[in-house]
Amino acid sequence: MNSRHGFQEVLTLGVSRLRAEGALAPFLAFVVFLSAYIVINPALLTRFQLQTAMNLVVPLALATLAQMLIVVVGGIDISIGAVLSLVNVVFALSTFVMPIPMAILLGLATGVAAGLFNGFLVAYGRLPAIAVTLATFFIFGAITKELMDRPGGNINYDFFLATSGELFPFFPMSLFWLVVIATGLWFVLQRTALGRHIYAAGSNSHGLEAAGVNSRRTVLIAFGIAGLLIAVAAIMLAGSTLTGDPRSGDSYLLNSIAGVALAGVSFAGGRGSILGAILAAFTLGLIGNFLFFAGINSAWQFIVAALILFSVVALPAAVTVVRQKVKGVA
Description:
The protein is built from 14 helices and two strands. It is an all-alpha fold. It has a domain of 201 residues. The protein has a two-stranded antiparallel sheet with strand order 1-2. Strand 1 and strand 2 form a beta hairpin. Helix 3 packs across helix 12 and helix 7 crosses helix 11. The longest helix is centred in the C-terminal third of the chain and has 31 residues.
């Protein structure tokens, strides 16, 4: 009885924690899709399949975290895919002329610079994030095409092992880096004044200014951190494919927005869960892998992502309408 009672307490505490984090829905979705996927394709549990799946999903998780940050401060980033492609290409080209560590730094700097450029126009130019990032989507995309018109690079196998190999059996390096980065981001958002300011910038910017905090600078920093996360995603992707590709970020815009929606992040700003965003990205990754191994056209992945976006937006509206009609009848 004691052990069962203890298990129930742990389960209740876990559910309460997930609900408090806003991650309960994406957690349940992840469990359902993971269970179904394992039943259909048990090979997922093999070392090779697990490593391959993580190498595909981790960049999406990082992109979703980046999108979450922008949504939390009250915006949306249309340029995420273009920035990812740009950093991916800059890093790959840099490996021809400089050591890998220097190429990594240049790639990270490129992502941060792109994020700060967007953030400056949004925060200090007072321009809508969706308009700014739509414009920079075309700008960054054009620069990427000028730098590289076909896949290439000089990325060595040692870099693959460091980013996408195995730390030890059944624990891919890509998952290790995701845990490290997500933990660092969680600490910043939950345990520092900057994190509190980032959440407040999206939900109560006037109150933040009244408290003497520069909300515009906070938004700028959030965009910079998002750019850094995208840069890491681009470099991780280059490490797993051993190449740079000017089209590498094409699928990340819609999927990152769908991940944010599935994670329950408020598009009004001010609320978002790191754990929820990661679980949502993993769920989308499982859907993509399932479609791939089932031999279904990859275009269906975008349709699924679009349906998730539609359902997340439409269902609450439908529930509200039904409640109003029920109250009217009553």
